[in-house]
Amino acid sequence: MGRIDFRDAISRNKRNSFLLISVIFGVFVLFGYVISFAFEPGFFFIIMIISIIFSLGYILISYYNSDKIAIASVHAKRASREKYKEYYRLVEGLIVAAGLPMPKLYVMESSQINAFASGRDYGHAVICVTTGALEKLDRRELEGVLAHELGHIANYDMRYMTLVTVMVGMISIISQIFLRSLWFRSGSNDRDNAIFVIIGIVLAILAPIVVYFVQTAISRKREFTSDAIAVKFTRYPGGLVSALKKIKNEHSPPKKKVNKAIAPLFFSNPLKNLSSTHPPIDKRVEALERM
Predict the structure, then answer these.
(1) Cα(128)–Cα(77) distance, rounded to whole angstroms?
(2) Catalytic annotation on 82?
(3) How far apart (Å, rounded) are the C-alpha atoms in residues 39 and 123?
(4) For the whole model, what pTM was predicted?
(5) Which residue out of 40, 149, 223, 289 is catalytically annotated?
(6) DSSP SS3 for 287
(7) 70 close to 116: Cβ distance less than 8 angstroms
(8) Which end of the chain has less neighbouring CB within 10 Å, N or C?
């Protein structure tokens, strides 16, 4: 396989992410269309309004406090400049290359090599690394990991994923309201109406599952994008490749279980599950070695 330019990789992954979010939007529109035929128009609007209010309310609260929630959930502590001089030096060097303001730096107690970034914008950005990452990674490797996290910040990934989460949340809520409302629906002899009700039931069951897997696919694309952005900032993919290989060879389980809600934020998936929000490490390494 030939070599690829990191700029092409960034553009391709962004384009794929846009196509995937279009799929979620398409499912949302199709579901709304079916419900509008299965029920009275007034009832359809009630379902849509309730789902939008609930999902937006929940997500906006999380979004505006994303940095605080993420840091508190892992019991991270603000990194002292005196104690973590190298950590600060590396980030300060990277923000010059990235043209970004200095994020707040945190450290969490964990023997695993990992890190995450959060915050709704540059002014509220935070980066957190594990003690395992600081102890086990050399300078080049740690720089690659930090550049990846700055890539998430530079790319406004929190905003993008918040939009995706709002849409996924609305589809899930609409599905629940639709299925529960069938108990209170008066009988109808309209054959066409009954067909739309059946289609609606099938969509209500399948749509949340489909959009969940699309959401994880979008998250994986954003990880590839941040890897490519890290190469753009450091001009050296070797450090990130080496860090990923060290993570792959790790066998120490985490002492504290990471909250499932913030697991997608991490550099590598801290949870082992089938529907991983992160691409396989081998695929990430393969893509980086071609840059």
Answers:
(1) 9
(2) no
(3) 46
(4) 0.76
(5) 149
(6) helix
(7) yes
(8) N
